[in-house]
Specification:
Elements lengths: L2 H11 L14 E8 L14 H22 L19 E7 L4 E8 L6 E3 L23 E2 L5 H4 L6 E3 L5 E6 L5 E14 L7 E16 L10 E4 L7 H4 L7 E5 L9 E6 L10 E4 L1 E3 L2 E7 L1 E6 L2 E4 L7 E3 L6 E3 L1 H15 L15 E3 L9 E5 L2 E5 L1 H4 E4 L4 E4 L1 E3 L6 E3 L7 E6 L4 E6 L6
Parallel strand pairs: 3-10, 4-9, 18-26, 19-25
Antiparallel strand pairs: 1-2, 1-12, 2-3, 2-8, 4-10, 5-8, 6-7, 7-8, 8-9, 11-12, 11-27, 13-28, 14-15, 15-18, 16-17, 16-21, 20-24, 21-22, 23-24, 27-28
Family: Belongs to the peptidase A1 family.
Protein name: Peptidase A1 domain-containing protein
Main location: secreted
């Protein structure tokens, strides 16, 4: 443990901190999910064109996936859930921590588990333009000790005992960024944007009180931490699972929208009726954070292109922008698509990391394409599949070859205008095509 982190933990240990009393929580609530490039985001740059925003998002997507690829055959015991961290976050959410509540803006990430914020007194923190969270001013803050249930949820290499028996966490990310500090519990509060209550609170939520943080992906001082929405035990959705029926959902708006997407929990995440399809959710013990599905085939026009993959061959992820298909399968899929389109592909000046581009023309008829998951056919529209690169007058596919053999990822473009429901108890993911601006 570094001397500076030890000093901060010693500072905490002289205080007696009481635990929060559990409050009754509602069965459902909804929060706004802000895309980093929307006008509602602190990252918004009005000088960028729509094409530039999309290409920048694609580059972030590639960077995110390359970190997983480079660490997948891990020889340093770094954990996969600590690798898929979005550069500056594709989606952001607001919440409040402590009593009295302090507002925080954080990355919302289905590819991570731990909830953490920067805390005072900080040995080393990245810049933020709001004061650091001061746990000693909160009546509901509790530091955990080694051997207690929260501390046992840290994976090997992510936790250790401090000199006074406090539980210290350490998360290292794929770009050598890290957050370390005191694993603690606090009351987290959320604005309920659509439910009857104005706010909802969850006492005794486990989070990381970050005292030593070096996060190179942060280039904006508005951000203060991360909210993990993965399948692991320390994520928000796992911790509040009993109160929300172990269900959450989102409905992602296209980049062009000026509204917020919605992240729903509990009863508000349930969808029924015509058009709802479901497929088994598969948790891979070697990558326990991620939500795996089984993609059996992709249909192009009337042709079925089988993946030939094994069970649990794709990850569904909101923080990866593009969809990545295993290289061999992508080649077969791309050949079928080019045949159906009847076009010559552009060979030069293709914006990286896009791969499949062809000249733009008005009233272009795109063939019907659908993902064939086990038990669920999910049709895709042009908005899910195509990017118009206006300055080069070309259309590019949002599906690209994966750098990883055997692993594919369904990214956010492929999920636009789909209500996607994660049922962790029922072990299934459901899809319902909709207009997310009205849903």
């Amino acid at each position: 443990m570094s001397p500076s982190l030890f000093f901060c933990l010693a500072f905490f240990s002289v205080y007696s901190l009481s635990s929060a009393e559990a409050d009754e929580s509602p069965s459902g609530f909804t929060v706004d999910l802000i895309h980093r490039d929307s006008p509602l985001s602190p990252f918004y740059n009005p000088s960028l064109t729509p094409s530039q925003r999309i290409i920048n998002a694609a580059l972030r997507s590639n960077s995110r996936l390359n970190r997983l690829s480079s660490h997948r055959l891990d020889q340093t015991n770094k954990l996969p859930q600590s690798i898929l961290v979005p550069d500056n976050g594709e989606y952001l959410m607001k919440f409040y921590i402590g009593t009295p509540p302090v507002e925080r803006l954080a990355i919302a990430d289905t590819g991570s588990d731990l909830i953490w914020v920067q805390c005072s007194p900080c040995a080393s923190c990245f810049p933020q333009d709001t004061p650091l969270f001061e746990p000693l001013k909160s009546s509901t803050f509790v530091g955990t000790t080694c051997g207690t249930q929260p501390c046992t949820l840290l994976q090997n290499g992510q936790g250790q005992c401090g000199n006074s028996g406090e539980c210290v966490y350490f998360y290292e990310y794929g770009d050598n960024s890290f957050s370390a500090g005191l694993l603690s519990t606090e009351t987290l509060t959320f604005d309920d944007s659509q439910g009857g209550a104005q706010t909802v609170s969850f006492p005794n939520t486990i989070f990381g009180c970050g005292l030593l943080n070096n996060f190179t992906v942060y280039s904006n001082t508005k951000l203060t931490g991360l909210v993990g929405l993965g399948a692991g035990p320390l994520s928000l959705v796992s911790q509040i699972g009993d109160q929300i029926g172990h269900k959450f959902s989102y409905c992602l708006l296209p980049f062009s929208s000026t509204s917020s997407s919605k992240l729903r929990f509990g009863n508000e995440a349930i969808i029924t009726g015509n058009g709802v399809v479901s497929t088994p959710m598969i948790i891979n013990p070697s990558l326990p954070t991620f939500y795996f599905l089984n993609l059996e085939a992709v249909t192009v026009a009337q042709k079925t292109v089988p993946t030939g993959g094994t069970e649990g061959n794709v990850i569904i992820d909101s923080g990866t922008v593009l969809t990545y298909l295993e290289p061999t399968f992508f080649s077969t899929f791309a050949a079928s698509l080019q045949e159906a389109l009847g076009v010559e592909l552009v060979q030069e000046d293709i914006p990286s990391p896009l791969n499949f581009c062809f000249p733009y023309r008005e009233n272009f008829a795109f063939p019907e394409i659908a993902f064939q998951f086990t038990g669920a056919t999910v049709p895709l529209k042009p908005i899910n599949l195509l990017i118009h690169i206006t300055d080069r007058n070309m259309l590019c596919l949002t599906i690209v070859p994966s750098p990883m053999t055997g692993i594919s990822i369904i990214g956010s473009f492929s999920q636009f205008n789909l209500h996607v429901v994660y049922d962790l108890e029922g072990k299934k993911v459901s899809f319902h095509p909709t207009d997310c601006s009205k849903d």
